[in-house]
Amino acid sequence: MARQNRVTPFGEIVATPARGTFMGNRGVLHNAAGVIVRPYQVQRWIICQVSFKGRQRVVMMPGRYTELFFLDEATALAAGHRPCVECRRAAYIAFRDAWTAAQPTIGKSGGYVKVDELDRVLHQERISLSGKKVTYVALLSDLPDGVFVVVGERPCFLWQDALFPWSAEGYQDPLPKDGGLRVLVLTPRSIVGALHQGYVPQVFLPMRL
Known about the structure:
By secondary structure, this protein is an alpha+beta fold. The relative contact order is 0.17. The mean pLDDT is 91. Strand 10 and strand 11 form a beta hairpin. Strands 7, 8, 9, 10, 11, 12 and 13 form a 7-stranded antiparallel sheet that branches. The protein has a 4-stranded mixed sheet with strand order 5-3-4-6. It has 4 helices and 13 strands. 19% of the residues lie in helices and 22% in strands.
């Protein structure tokens, strides 16, 4: 039976046998039986390498953080995660610098925002006080590559002037981009800003890269 540990662009945690290319966590979300009992525990939602320095983990050990998996980094960003400071340090620094450049009003130390402040802002943008995912409406032509939007109730990934419908197994055949279309944006606002500033996520689109 597939574990409930795969994250969608909506930020939902679902059960699927499909494997992911990135791992991450939001704290301890499961009980002793391995059942997800909360959507998050901490504001630090991160994106990790699936392997790092030979470390071995037993998935969903009682009392340990819940290992979550993503199709790719773009999916994780849409859900509201950001690169891990430890196992993806170079990606984190690139993300932090792009994110900081897009947030001129955020307080900075040494020229860039501290990770706790970044996580605080992201948490406000990813989930509401009622526990719902925060979204907003924008013109498709105003959005950068790497963003997830909703088209016909389907999450779609914007990349190289096309929209790729998402599935747990991978992306489906691309749809043409209609720049005048108003869409619901799943990727948090400040992450969209980082993408505008040049941050490029790792994506699972071998036929387009």
